[in-house]
Amino acid sequence: MGPMIAEHNGISTHRSGRLRRNKQFRLDAQACFLELDQETAERTEQMERLVVVGRSFTGLAHESRNALQRGQANLEMLSLELQDQPELLKLAIRAQRALEEIHHLFGEVRDYSAPLHLEIQQSDLAIQWSQVWDELEISHPDKLVQFNESVRSADTLCDIDEFAMRQVFRNIFENAISACPNPGQIDVKCRDTELNLQPAIEISVRDNGPGLSKEQIDKIFDPFFTSKRAGTGLGMAIAKEIVAAPGGGVTARNTFDSGAEIVLCIPRTMRAVSVYF
Amino acid sequence: MTEASKFQGTEVPVCVAVAEDEPELREYYQRVLPHLGYQVVGIVENGEELVQLCFQSMPCVIICDVDLQKLSGLEAVKLIRYRHPVAAVYVTENRYEDVTAEKANRAVVLKKPFRMCDLKLAIEQAMEMSSNSSKSKELI
Do B93 and A71 touch (CB under 8 A)? Predict the structure, then answer.
């Protein structure tokens, strides 16, 4: 009987210890779940808040276009009146540049937040990049950059969305112009290639700037990554989304001598797609 | 010779008609277009007035907002083009207008905010587009 009691007692002791531990475990688990619930709720609330902020900011970026235009128009008229007063003209030009910077930042937010819908048609890529270059040449009067084209491909015709493709070239050229010394040089080369066994076109944009660091090569297409003093870091992310949507690709690397190179690979034949970020 | 007339290969300045509902921007066009070498035939506030102005003055280029009172910019240009060929620049200020204008035929879309140099380039592109379109019609 003694051992039985002892055994009983033993079991009893063992059981009561296990029960206490189980109870403790349940309490710990409950506390843990409560904490997780609270954390999840806080995170959800934070996400919801960010969505609202994102929507409001996108709305603001859109609605600001008319106000920015009025500011720009008045400053340009003022500049015309101040042609013979260089000191005052300098101030008006500075104000204009500040407005342009705000416009550029808002523009990137607008482009990144908008759903991407590509209307594919056969078009000449060389015409698209030349048109963008003409626009950028005017926008950077204080920087002398030589633009060289070398088209080894039989033709530069490709199935693209012209508007979106111009945006890709604009974002890549803008980066290249910023990286170039003054005077600088940008080379665009083009050749036939294959992508997933399908005919494709490869376009390389090289600048003669200092080149890219390892971090820049790894992250250049990440949204909000920027090494510039001013910028949202969305330009190259937008370019990647546009090229990737119908199955193309874009990479960044350094050239053998110096400078950075962005290489686009675009399938010759694409289909219309809608991509919502 | 002005930049604009050089483009056409003539010393007669290119005539431009404008429709814009913002008073500040009407003043801007009035000041800036002659500076760029264009002759302003009139600046009006709505689509109906634009049609009347263009029927009277037959400009080479129209610069107009997409969203105009009484008659939209796109409808006005369509009506004017029944009478005579004209180069068109549509000025847009929001995403809806961007999409609408980009679908329009034979026109250049100029998004607000733009600068004087963007305006000049848009007019030149619209004129080139219009001239190419007339040439292809002649070939047909």
Answer: no
